[in-house]
Predict the 3D structure of the following.
Amino acid sequence: MIVSINYDLKRPGQNYSALYNAIKACGSWWHFLGSTWLVDTTLSAQGVWDRLAPHLDKNDFVLVIGVTRDYQGQLPQDAWAWINSRAAKRAA
């Protein structure tokens, strides 16, 4: 499953490297937009959240949501290649 992890981190100057490492550990990832990651993972959205939550402050906002086949936007070609290759694999 591909999940989109979107966040609004509220603490200026906070070191979020542990959060970023937790995201990367969830599976194959793509990160081009500043506060959005796409992760191809075997985890559910709840499973991803369980790994990220310990690395967040109480005032941070995070959304972990599954990516469906209905998507659109303006991204670089390599981003679409990453998304489409994984979406096609899931559909097979």
Notes: The mean pLDDT is 90. The chain has three helices and four strands. The domain at 2-91 is CATH 3.30.70.240 (Alpha-Beta Plaits).
